TrEMBL record:
This is LysR family transcriptional regulator. The keyword DNA-binding applies. Signal peptide: none annotated. PROSITE patterns: HTH_LYSR (PS50931). Keywords: DNA-binding, Transcription, Transcription regulation. Residues 14-71 form the HTH lysR-type domain.
Amino acid sequence: MFEHQDSLKSLRKFDLNLLTVFEAVYYYKSVSKAADILGMTSPAVSQSIQRLRQYFPDPLFIRYGKGISATVFADSMHENIKGSLSGIIDIFADKGDSIRNLVIWSDPHLAQVLIPDICSHLMSLPKLKCRIVHNLLPEDAVGVEHALLYHKTDIIFDIAPIFNSAIESELIFREKIVAVCGKDHPRLKDSLSANSLKDERCITIMKDRKKINEFKSKIDVLLGKRVISFASPSSLIALSVIEKTNDVGFFPESMYEKFKNIYNLKRLECDVDLGSYEVYMSYSKKALQDKALLELVERVRETFVMNNKSVHP
DNA sequence: TCTAGTCTTGTGCCGTCGGT
DNA sequence: ACCGACGGCACAAGACTAGA
């Protein structure tokens, strides 16, 4: 049972507006001034205080000269409610602009391209009070769609668009796929052909995603059936394995550029076009009323779409 | 003692809510 | 959808107090 259930039930009968009247009268120590501030007449304020008196064994305010004086009971009541009331006032004053989590779902390799720029931009806006939370994209496509519809996430970056009338999916950039191996590979120098790949072992990214599987099939067609020596859902682990073995892998160009020096990698030019993939930004159309999300969407458009900026330096 | 300022009380109107 | 009950508000008038 909810611990405040009984208290909430009795509160239903209590007019919480009486507390705002109480606070105004307490602050100004004047019924007429409080009425002015609250946009009421002084009789209405006086009557509100009368109603409040029915709930407490104390008159709360006593006429003192031309004004009124708060009783000690009113003093302690004020101490008890001022914090809660200012919390409520903050919520309404901010109209939802208080610090909130802006949740982004994406695969790690897209996150490393997009999120650093998003973070640095949003954090440079002092008026925007939000914190970025990144979560990994689940493999289940329906779960991804529902996450947006049910506001479990604010924005999704993925290699596939979402087809739903309530969701906007924008193409933000295309990225090339490149063949990669260790810098000191004993056989492969600077290029890779179907013939040279026959003698090599390959690393593959193990994800049950339609687009990724399509890409793997395309590589098979272009370069022949490969021998897979290692599989992982993590591109970073795959790159680190390439560093210590003589294996070959296929990665997004931005990822190669970012980690080539860290993992001692080199790019192999292919005599066939390995193609590219698209990156989409998806969000709920209704959620765009949110200033933080709108700022994020516009920043992504500005940086990756409008300027057609390269995703790697 | 009068006046001005403030609070309280009485009354009627109007909007909302709950029951039918 | 209608109707009665209820609550909140404004207005008017009275009560109270300080200061001139």
